[in-house]
Amino acid sequence: MADENEQQLTDAIVGDGDDRAAGTGGGAMLWIVVAVVMVLGAGGGFLAGRILNAGPATADAGEPTPAEEPADRTPAKEGELAYFPIPSVTINLNEQRLNRHVKATISLGVDAANADEVQSVLDKRMAEVTDWLNIYLSGCTLEDVRGPKNLRRIQREISEALNSRFWGEQKPKIEKVLLTEWHVQ
Predict the structure, then answer these.
(1) Global pTM?
(2) N or C: which end of the chain has fewer CB within 10 A?
(3) Same-domain pairing of 100 and 177
C-alpha cells in the first residue's frame, strides 16, 4: 500500500511515462512554470532596485528624523564663530537623462555674540531653511554641484539667501556656511 502511494505521488510530481508519450508531459510544464517564476522574480528585483535607488522625494527629504535632530541645540564655538548644524537634505538634481542626487549637510557659522538670536530664529524657522535648501538644490544640475568653484558659489548663495530671508536689511548674521557632508551620485 505504501509503495502504491509513493508511486502515485512520484507520478503526480514528475509525471508517468504514459503522459510523456502522449505529449502532455508534466515535466515540460514544470520547466515552463519555473522559467516564468524566474522571469517574474528578476523583473521584480529590477523594479525594486530602481524604486529604492530613486531616493526620497524632495518634499520629505528636508524633514528631520529623530536621529538627525541634534542632541542639544547649543552651538559649538570655534574662535569667534558659533556653528549651527542644519539637518541633512537629499535631493534629486535637475538632470534629464540620469537619476542623480546630492546629499548635503551644512552648518551655519555666526558671530558668537549673535548666537542666541540666530538659535531662536533657527528653532522657529528650521522648516523654512530645509524647504529653501530643497528647492534651491533641486534646481541645480550635475555641473552646478561639481568642483570647488561651484561649491564656494553654493556656500555664498546659501548665506546670502538665508541672511536676506531672515534678517532682511539688517547686518548679515550668517558669516560662513560649511558643507560638512556633500555626496553626489
Answers:
(1) 0.57
(2) N
(3) yes
